[in-house]
């Protein structure tokens, strides 16, 4: 089957739409709850997305079968629409214009917690 088969593209599109709606919802919730000192919504989705992809990656690495269609729906679609690394880059740049220290704190927090969540959940996924 072609990687551009309509049914495969539909899986990516459906997952991407769901991930984007989740990202938007979390961003709005974080904005209302925590304000604008930091882009909390972007931080939250990057950490959550890293944790989820770490868990899925760990499960796959430990031998759990995952059909290509499920990977397209969950990893390429859902997590691709959910995580916001490009928005993260913009946020860091905008924060740096206001305060280099705030931008550096945000950058370090996102990398530390995102990679930490990935590592912990990858380890967990390999042991489930």
UniProtKB/TrEMBL annotation:
Keyword Nucleus annotated: no
Cell location: Cell membrane
Keywords: Cell inner membrane, Cell membrane, Ion channel, Ion transport, Membrane, Metal-binding, Sodium, Transmembrane, Transmembrane helix, Transport
Signal sequence, renumbered to the chain: none
InterPro entries per the UniProt record, alphabetical: FluC
Main location: membrane
Residues involved in Na(+) binding: 80, 83
Membrane topology: Multi-pass membrane protein
Regulation: Na(+) is not transported, but it plays an essential structural role and its presence is essential for fluoride channel function.
Key word Protease present: no
Catalytic activity: fluoride(in) = fluoride(out)
Membrane-spanning intervals of the chain: 39-60, 72-97, 103-125
HAMAP family noted in UniProt: FluC
Stated family: Belongs to the fluoride channel Fluc/FEX (TC 1.A.43) family.
Role noted for this protein: Fluoride-specific ion channel. Important for reducing fluoride concentration in the cell, thus reducing its toxicity.
Record protein name field: Fluoride-specific ion channel FluC
Gene from which the chain derives: fluC
């Amino acid at each position: 089957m072609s990687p551009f088969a309509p049914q495969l593209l539909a899986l990516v599109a459906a997952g991407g739409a769901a991930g984007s709606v989740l990202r938007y919802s979390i961003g709005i919730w974080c904005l209302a709850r925590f304000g604008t000192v930091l882009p909390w919504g972007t931080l939250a989705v990057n950490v959550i997305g890293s944790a989820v992809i770490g868990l899925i990656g760990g499960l796959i690495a430990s031998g759990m079968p995952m059909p290509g269609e499920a990977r397209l729906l969950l990893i390429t679609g859902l997590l691709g629409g959910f995580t916001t690394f490009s928005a993260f880059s913009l946020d860091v740049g905008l924060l740096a214009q206001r305060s280099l220290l705030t931008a550096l704190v945000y950058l370090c927090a996102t990398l530390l917690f995102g990679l930490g969540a990935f590592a912990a959940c990858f380890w967990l996924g390999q042991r489930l």
